[in-house]
Amino acid sequence: MDPEPKKPEDSPSNSANSHTPVQPPSPFPDEVLEKVLSFIDSHKDRSSVSLVRKDWYNAERWTRSKLFIGNCYSVSPEIVARRFPRIKSITLKGKPRFSDFNMLPRDWGANVHSWLVMFAKVYPFLEELRLKRMTVTDESLELLAKSFSGFKSLSLSSCDGFTDIGLKAIASHCRNLTELDIQDSVTEDVGGGWLSCFPENFASLEVLNFASLNSEVSFDDLERLVSRCKSLRVLKVNESITLDQLQRLLVHAPQLLELGTGSFLQELTPRQYEDIESAFSNCKNLQILSGLWEANSLYLPVLYGACAGLTFLNLSDAPLQSGEFAKLLAHCPNLRRLWVVDTVEDKGLEAVGSSCPLLEELRVFPADPYDRHHRDGVTELGFLAVSRGCRNLHYVLYFCRRMTNAAVVTIVQNCPDFTHFRLCIMTPGQPDYLTNDPMDEAFAAVVKTCTKLKRLSVSGLLTDLTFEFIGKYAKNLETLSVAFAGNSDWGMQCVLEGCPKLRKLEIRDSPFGNAALLSGLKKYEMMRSLWMSDCNVTMKGCRLLAREMPRLNVEVIMDEESDESQADKVYVYRSVAGPRRDAPPFVLTL
Amino acid sequence: MELVMAHESDLNLKATELRLGLPGSDECEKMFSSAKNNKRASPEMAEDSSGSKGSSDVKSVEHETAPAPNVSDGRAQIVGWPPVKSYRKNNLQQNKTEGDQSGMFVKVSMDGAPYLRKIDLKLYNGYSELLKALETMFKLTIGEYSEREGYKGSEYAPAYEDKDGDLMLVGDVPWDMFMSSCKRLRIMKGAEARGLGGAFS
């Protein structure tokens, strides 16, 4: 059972200092330790285990099969390959989150290729790769497809850089593929031909999600694929698939747990309507539903038969009106998670409050984020209504155009268990619309009442007071997002000095400068990353930080128009890999 | 077909109008100081610790427009704000029917007014929204529609010129048919308006 003898340089304590105390022999043999450790899955637990003593470190690294790397630049492929010899599953995350909102120039980095080259060499038995916010080229996908004969599971979330050429390689070569999951792809043009490249005898797919890819696929090939993959449990098609085509797919796969429909707008004959209605009714196991592009009151009722067991309803692509939305909700008593567009308005959210007592997560997205049509969307009243009816609510993402302190205070009193509170008042720096006060009181209430809070996004007119409260009360906070808020360095300092579990801090357009940046010197090594854009930080401050903290990468992204001394976009993160070797010319590592 | 329904109250058509004269006051210019660098906008406001000044600036953003190059409603846009993912943003903003991004602008004349206005019929999901918008734009009341008597309860009646050049009463045909045949709107006033309604009673 014991593999090759452990080489001495594996041990972390075998460094230059020879006066490292010799550790007493382990009470149990390596085989036992390894067996025990093989039951530990969580990478956080494994990290703790590896720090106990040298032999635990070694046992851990030999038994770890799943790797989680939250920032691809915090470590290098070489370091990973040296430490972990037997990896089967890898999760890699790349760009900072603000890249989702076009705040990072193209070609910033996070290209997966150099990782894949290493993996191909060291982990021939790799089965699973989950990438988030990384650039993945066709060349990389081809390398992936050809290097790992047992490869099973590919998940690309918010990735870019590939076309259907890369997907064709995956479909053609990955004989054992069980999962192909593409979410929120930002690729301009991915043709649909890849779907037809799965071999005729290929039947192992369990998860297929191509909802975010725009091009039409061959329906015939899709239908054949679905009918032969008897273990298919997740199917999310794109908008090109029509309602009657969906009906045929459902007839082949009534066992689905998760379904993403195609377009829901089509003129159906009465016969077709009946057929699709009965197809949905036969989906007895459906738990998650999404897609529903252009759904309206005419065709939503065909869904009703499949809604009894639904736990997650994602209507973020289907802007509904309050009436049709309320009718749909009446059929979904078991909802735990709900994503909607604000076209449902406060009235729709009242229906949520009354129909969904088990609700734990609510996300409300704006139909009109740039306020072109001056729609009302949702207000504090809708949020209040949900909080009154859904006492188990612990995750909220809420885009609105007006909010009051009083409402938020009441909301958190109704739902004190928030772990994720992301409130986006869409006009920057907007005060309480009734009293004209800053929204400090609201967020003070959030951090005081919700002791389990892990993630917070603040918005509206906020003074340093908000940050004083966050620093003082948010003891479990791990992620904080700040925009257009605060008065002075003091605000950011409070957060850096106060929140012991802070891991990710992202700030934009706020008046925090060098003093604030430097007050977090010690803290940044315990965090994953810091992002500051359009604040008052200068190159001088960044250089100072870089000099004082050599184990941090301090990167400044230069804009063409920007002033040489201002540091418009700063990205700071801990790394054992040293400065980036692939930084483009506009990224300065200090 | 519109994906997004309008709310009942003020639609603020100023945002979509084409004016003859100079644009109105733009406090907005102060907030989004330079057209090319909108990013710096709000630190000025955030630094202002008293809420009131900030709020009046903010409120002015809601209702005033500043001329800006390539944004259809004239409002300056901040990069990456609100924080909506590009993928999601693209899906919701596209007009699903034939991908037409342009509006369906028709001229609106009112008897006795010195100049015409223009509205985008695509912004409305039905007659009631359109009529409310006209009432707001011209500061008048249009009254209740009935098939039998046209518009009762006010001295105004909304009419339109159709593809054949005929003057028709607004509201007689289904909305979609109206949208495709309406070439021009005319708000009739006084005796002529009553005559139009009365002719069918």
From TrEMBL, chain A:
SMART domains: LRR_CC. Residues 11-21 have a biased composition (Polar residues). Residues 1-29 are annotated as: Disordered. Gene3D superfamilies: 1.20.1280.50, Ribonuclease Inhibitor. Residues 1-10 have a biased composition (Basic and acidic residues). It comes from the Eukaryota. This is Transport inhibitor response 1-like protein. It comes from Rehmannia glutinosa. The lineage of its organism: Eukaryota, Viridiplantae, Streptophyta, Embryophyta, Tracheophyta.
UniProtKB/TrEMBL annotation, chain B:
Residues 24-75 are annotated as: Disordered. It is found in: Nucleus. Keywords: Auxin signaling pathway, Nucleus, Repressor, Transcription, Transcription regulation. The keyword Transmembrane helix does not apply. It comes from the Eukaryota. Residues 48-58 have a biased composition (Low complexity). Transmembrane segments: none annotated. InterPro entries: AUX/IAA_dom, AUX_IAA, PB1-like. The keyword Transcription applies. It holds the Pfam family AUX_IAA. Residues 103-190 form the PB1 domain. Homodimers and heterodimers. Aux/IAA proteins are short-lived transcriptional factors that function as repressors of early auxin response genes at low auxin concentrations. Belongs to the Aux/IAA family. This is Auxin-responsive protein. It comes from Rehmannia glutinosa (Chinese foxglove).
